[in-house]
Write a structure and sequence with these properties.
10-stranded mixed sheet, alpha-1,4-glucan glucosyltransferase (ADP-glucose donor) activity, Rossmann fold, starch synthase, 256 residues, alpha/beta
């Protein structure tokens, strides 16, 4: 069924990241859907490792300039855009000096998770939602990839619950084996600032607990990796949300 508006929200995509299954899968899915005549957009963080010159990123002034309040602090939202090399497929990058300039993704050089990973995910989720609304482009399908993207459905179904903009969009969550890490113990207070409380994930807040939590807020869950880690696989088996085993890229449109 072509002519769908498909939004990919991801933390990784080839060629911006080169050596992960997630990056390769998202690239192939987005390209296939684009080439089949769908209106496809991709949103991802502008991590410090992504070369603006190499990939010809440029700031979109009309979309930038918004402030997002995280934990009572104003954080400026900068939107950059590029076309996927060799393709007319637009990739939007969520940027902020405080959260995304550093050269590592989620862990410092010693392997310690960043204290503000939770805030970075909140900023990313809200940045994507607010920018889509500013674009005045309403997706039919929202496909989430990567743990930061798992904050999007939680926000859509709580903080943005009374906002009808995304009411008809169907949300698909892909599960991947990502390295788990604990979140800052004050994450509950930060979410409470956005009137979000009562999440089971807050009992033991971590990358994985929020991915598992987000399964309750989406329309379909699919395995992004063929074999999942024990905890993730258990949650996948137990969820009452519609689910699909691993699909090759040629079959993904059946899910949509």
């Amino acid at each position: 069924m072509p002519n769908q508006k498909i939004l990919y929200i991801t933390t990784e995509m080839y060629p911006y990241q080169e050596d992960s299954n997630m990056a390769a899968v998202v690239n192939k899915m987005a390209l296939k859907m684009h080439q089949e005549g769908n209106d496809v957009r991709v949103f991802m963080p502008r991590f410090g490792q992504i070369s603006e010159r190499k990939f010809q990123l440029h700031e979109v002034i009309r979309l930038s300039g918004m402030n997002i309040i995280i934990n009572d602090l104003d954080q400026p939202l900068i939107i950059k855009v590029a076309s996927l090399p060799g393709e007319r497929l637009q990739v939007y990058f969520i940027d902020n000096e405080e959260y995304f300039k550093r050269k590592q993704y989620y862990f410092d050089d010693e392997g310690t998770p960043f204290d503000d990973n939770d805030e970075r995910a909140i900023f990313f989720a809200r940045g994507v939602i607010e920018t889509i609304k500013k674009l005045n482009w309403v997706p039919d399908v929202i496909h989430l990839n990567g743990w930061m993207a798992s904050f999007v459905p939680i926000y859509l179904k709580t903080y943005y619950e009374s906002d009808t903009y995304f009411k008809d969009a169907k949300i698909v969550l892909s599960l991947y084996n990502e390295k788990d890490a604990a979140f800052d113990k004050n994450i509950g207070e930060k979410l409470k600032f956005d009137n979000i409380s009562g999440l089971k994930a807050l009992d033991n807040p971590s990358v994985q607990s929020f991915v598992i939590e987000s399964m309750n807020y989406v329309d379909a869950v699919v395995k992004g990796d063929e074999f999942l880690d024990e905890n993730l696989d258990k949650a996948f088996k137990e969820t009452s949300t519609a689910k699909s085993e691993y699909l090759d890229v040629d079959s993904i449109n059946q899910l949509y």
